[in-house]
Write a structure and sequence with these properties.
- The chain is mainly alpha-helical.
- It folds into 2 domains: 1-33, no CATH class; 48-97, no CATH class.
- Helices cover 27% and strands 6% of the residues.
Length: 97
């Protein structure tokens, strides 16, 4: 099995092909995480509140700023502060104040 900065390395993800200077995004993810690393990590951390892990299926755990209706509504209701903290307070049932 090929290791290092080669297209044959199974641990490299991203722009592995046609990237001779390695200037386009490339990420190392161990092949032992499986075909869906995000699903694996989500299963390991479960619902543990200390982890800020996105869930494409759960709109309440959508941490994208772009068109995040949960965040927009919270700010409209008076929530202020860091994006992640607003979402945490909403999840824990805390008010805007």
């Amino acid at each position: 099995m090929e290791e290092g900065f080669t297209p044959e390395n199974p641990n490299l993800r991203g722009q592995v092909e046609d990237n001779p200077d390695w200037l386009r995004p490339i990420f190392y993810l161990s092949r032992y995480l499986g075909e869906n690393p995000a699903e694996y990590v989500a299963g390991v951390i479960g619902g543990e509140g200390r982890f800020f892990f996105p869930s494409p299926e759960d709109i309440r755990r959508n941490y994208n700023y772009n068109e995040n209706q949960v965040l927009v509504e919270a700010i409209r209701k008076g929530y202020r502060g860091a994006f992640w903290d607003i979402l945490r307070r909403l999840a824990e049932g805390e008010g805007a104040g």
